[in-house]
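Sync notes, pocket subgroup
Present: LS, DG
LS reminded everyone that the earlier model was apo-only. Rerun requested with 5CA included. Inputs:
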Amino acid sequence: MRLSRFFLPILKETPKEAEIVSHRLMLRAGMLRQEAAGIYAWLPLGLRVLKKIEQIVREEQNRAGAIECLMPTLQLADLWRESGRYDAYGPEMLRITDRHKRELLYGPTNEEMITEIFRSYVRSYKNLPLNLYHIQWKFRDEQRPRFGVMRGREFLMKDAYSFDIDEAAARKSYNRMFVAYLRTFARMGLKAIPMRAETGPIGGDLSHEFIVLADTGESGVFCDSDVLNLPVPGDDVDYDGDLTAIIKQWTSVYAATEDVHDAERFEREVPAEKKLNTRGIEVGQIFYFGTKYSDKMKALVAGPDGVDAPIHGGSYGVGVSRLVGAIIEACHDENGIKWPEAVAPFRAAILNLKQGAADTDAACEALYKELSAKGVDVLYDDTDQRAGGKFATADLIGIPWQILVGPKGLADGTVELKRRADGSRENVTPAEAVARLTT
Ligand code: 5CA
């Protein structure tokens, strides 16, 4: 992509309305535009990151055996009356009436709809276990939308729903999602800690929130610092095998949100030097709620004995749009964003430090063509901006690799390869730069 033809509305001024660094940087870097309180348009740079995150979430869901579908954003109120949540959900639910005076709502979550789909087709334990997920926009009319994508009203969520014959099988499904979450967040360069959590309006009595520690986070947490160094399962993890050892390892070290914090246990189990009481960003939450929805909505399957029984369910959410902000909170410096490679909007940027000079133009064009041909997502800054401005833009938008092409280096046959993560620079030939980015 040539920057001169891209749409990257960078802001010179720091927007006053943004209270936290991720929100400020997303606005300044031209990723996002607020259209109403808690409702945003995703501009091209922001959308690229959102899609990368979505794809990692999708790959790890698929790997764990979940199956993708897509449910609509609008749902019938009557469906929610079946579970009793239409009234219970309160003012956070956006209620809509269509031209036939039919009551609808913009879905804040999908337990009811997926249960309705399930009960329409599945009648036997032989079709279980089943885990269906989608990645879809949700709406919650939050009292205080704030911090940009962190607490939006419209936001993108991955939500998965598992169906099992009994509690033991449902716990296995829960464990698969637990492990998938460990892997998902690690692939994005995040340390997200599973913490015991309250279940709130989703219900049930078993739940973990996955939390990225950050001072700007909205959740208060207590944990043993040892939990920060536990190993994340590799891509050879066997989802059909026994995952209990992994779960045990992760859940036997103290980690809880303040809502379910057990002060006595914390005192007893955690040595003073390992006690952490801090804040964090909830990037995902998983729930086991048993027969809460299947009882009320009559989602029954016949067991091996031929007797119908309500299925045991769980639901598993990831805050896909919130993750964009969470990653920036974890990866930035005073100059801007430092995207982990896995979620970066472009892998590399070419900075032509003397636009219009025959030698730098030719070298940049050649690099741009070669990298593009080799499948590297590259942004070529071919604008008239001065070198200082190009450095600032590339640092602000956080591209992991920058190739600086100036007349002095070129005279020696080199360009400078800069790594955004640590600022390290190296003089290499253009061919070496290409080799580094393609191997
Ligand atoms: N049905 C369940 C699991 S699928 C559910 O809705 N869980 S949830 O309420 O915990 O939401 C899942 C994730 O969505 C949260 O962990 C959080 O990362 C994200 N999320 C929730 N509310 C918002 C919001 N207002 N803005 C941005 N992300 C949000």
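DG: DSSP finds 14 helices and 23 strands in the chain.
LS: The two ends are 21 Å apart (CA to CA).
Action: DG to write up.
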